[in-house]
Each structure stands twice: as structure tokens, then as C-alpha cells.
Amino acid sequence: MIFFTLALLFSGNTHNFSMHLVKKISMHQRPYQAAFSCDGRYLAVAGEYGTILYSTSDWSRRRTIHQSGNCLSPIAESSKFAIDSGNKVYVIGPDSKTEGLELPSLNKTTSNLTVTGNGKTLGIFGNRVMRLYDVATHKLILKREVDDGYTGQLIGTDSSVALSIWGYSTHNGGAVILYPSDTSQPPVIKTFPISGPYALAYSPATRRLYIGCIDGRLYTMNIAGNNLRFLCRPRHQNMECLSVSPDGSLVAIGYRRDSKHCRGRDMMLLVDGRSGHTLTKKTRTYGVQGLRFAPDGKTLAQTDRGGNLRIFRCRP
User: Fold this and answer.
1) What confidence score (pLDDT) does residue 85 get?
2) pTM value?
3) Label partner for 277 (CA 20 to 30 A): which of 148, 189, 237, 243?
4) Rounded CA gap, 167 and 255, in Å?
5) Taking the mean position of all CA atoms in its chain, how far away is CA 225?
């Protein structure tokens, strides 16, 4: 009895949560990125042939928008999204109107896109150039080249845009760069001497940025103080994607198999956002490519390289 009690105490709470599959949808195209609208009413999935909007109240209700793109981002306090289309950025939503934004200096360089939490700034990264635009006026407010390196991901915090760079030439491992919406303030650079940062997620409630590295390490950074803290390393494997619930209590992590050395396997984990303890895992993820929590913090969307969308319900 004593041994059983101690085992529970030191088990890391690995089975306190479950990921219940609610819906599986075959998209008949390769999905690139998924995102819930800020009001939680819609899920948009950008793919190679177009973007599909699903109603979260009835998953059979969908609208196909013939604007393909590699990345999209929800727009604050609305059911709309910003999506790139190579040489143009479009605003899409549940209505039939699709608005194209005429952005100066874009020149077909979009490879990553995000909107800040306050809805005021649009960040675009491509061809090693970071651009910030004013959402209201569409004016270019910042254009800055980034040192040689491989770009990871781009994500908006409350009032800044975070960019992950791994293989950064100035630093051994990589860096995360924060570009404030107030362009009179200089960017903040956090360097990683060993593990290259790749995947990014942000919790608005805790104002913490979650940083996943290509060697499987997970860090958190307080946006207010810019202090970096190691959280956990559940797997010694390439981290493909991650998402954090809005309140910061849950972090979903997608790992992909290292094809070069045939190590590990595709896997999805759910970890505690504060302690880093593993709560549950799923090994049949079929090439997990993207993860995104809904605003309710309990619904999780997962896309895979096989062209499928899965909706999970995370619960104790």
C-alpha cells in the first residue's frame, strides 16, 4: 500500500488527462496550418488547394474559400482570419466577402504570417526580411533584415511579434526575436547556445511565450520580464509543433520521427504548462503537422500530413 502511494506521488501525473477523439475529417488535400477564430465559432484550415472554414457548433457545416496559403492567423475579437497567398494577404471570414490587403513592399515574400493579440499589427516574414504593417492603415511600419539562419515560426503576442530562428549565424543554437508594435522600441533578442528554437505558442492569460526546440526541449519566456526558463524535455526528438491553452495550463506537443536516423516515432503529448509533467500521450498521430487549442482551452485541433483533421477534447 505504501509503495503504491509513493508510485502515484512520483509518477508525474501521467494519466490525469485524456484526449478524446470527437471528430475526424478527411480534407482531400494536405493541410498546412489550422487556427480557431478568436470568438471560437470557427476553425480555418489552410491547405494546398484552398482554405476551409468549419463551424465549431456543427462540424458538417463548412465553407471552402479558394485562397490557398501556407499560414493564417485569427484577427482579434472577430470570426475573421488573415491568410497569405504568396504575393497578397487576404482577410477571410464566414461571410462571402474576401478582402485583399494591398501591402507595400510585399513582393511575393510571404512565408509566415501572424496578427498581434490587440489586432493592431500584422507581422510577415519571408526571404529573411521581417515586416510589420499597421492593420488599420495597411502601412509598412517596420522592415528589417534577419541574419542568416533557418526560420522556425512566427506568432503574435499581445503587442509584439515573436520570430524563432534556428541555426542563427551569430549564435550557435538560435534565437527568438521579439518585435514590438511600437517600432520606436528596439527588438528583444533571446539567444539559445545549444538547442535551436523552432515551434512557438503564446498564452495571453499568463503572458508567457512557449518555445519548442528541434532537440525536444521546451522553454517558457515571460513577455514582461523577458526571463527564459527551461520547462521540460519529454522526448529527445524533433519537435514539429506545439500549442498552449489560453490560460497556460495545457501544452500540446507534436513530435515527428527523425527520418535521417529512423529514430523515435510520430507522437502527440499533453503536458502541464506550469510543471512540465506529461499528462497523456498519443502515438498514432499519422504524421502530426499542426496543433491548435480553441479559446475554451479544452478543444484541440490536429492536422497531419495524410490530409486529415482531428478534433480532440482534453479532459481530466
Assistant:
1) 73
2) 0.88
3) 189
4) 19
5) 22
**CA gap 4, 11 in Å, rounded:** 10
Cell, residue 210 = 512557449
| 282, 252 Cβ separation under 8 angstroms | no
pLDDT tens, 34-61? 999 999 999 999 888 888 899 999 988 8
| Length of the chain measured in residues | 316
Distance of CA 79 to the CA centre of its chain: 18
Distance in angstroms (rounded) separating the CA atoms of residues 253 and 239: 7
Q: What are phi and psi of 218, to 5 degrees?
A: -125, 125
Identify residue 270 by its one-letter amino acid code: L
Do residues 238 and 203 lie in contact, with contact meaning Cβ atoms separated by under 8 Å?
Answer: no
Sequence-separated (6 or more) residues with CB below 8 Å from residue 102:
88, 138
Edge to edge, what strands does the sheet with 129-134 contain? 112-115, 121-126, 129-134, 140-145
Q: Longest C-alpha distance within the chain, in Å?
A: 69
Mean of pLDDT values over 151-157: 86
SS3 content of the chain, % helix, strand, coil (to 5): 5, 50, 45
- Backbone phi and psi for residue 6, each to the nearest 5 degrees, phi listed first: -65, -35
Strand-pairing partners, residue 181, are none
What is d(CA 178, CA 264) in angstroms, rounded to the nearest whole number? 32
Alpha carbons 216 and 61: distance in angstroms, whole number:
37
- Under 8 Å CB-to-CB from 84, ≥6 apart: which residues? 69, 70, 71, 72, 90, 110, 111, 113, 124
Position 169 pLDDT exceeds 50: yes
pLDDT reading at 129 higher than 50: yes
Query: What domains sit in the chain, N to C, each tagged with a CATH number?
Result: 14-315 (2.130.10.10)
**pLDDT higher than 60, residue 157:** yes
Residue 171 has a pLDDT of: 52
**Which DSSP helix (H) or strand (E) runs through 5?**
helix 2-9
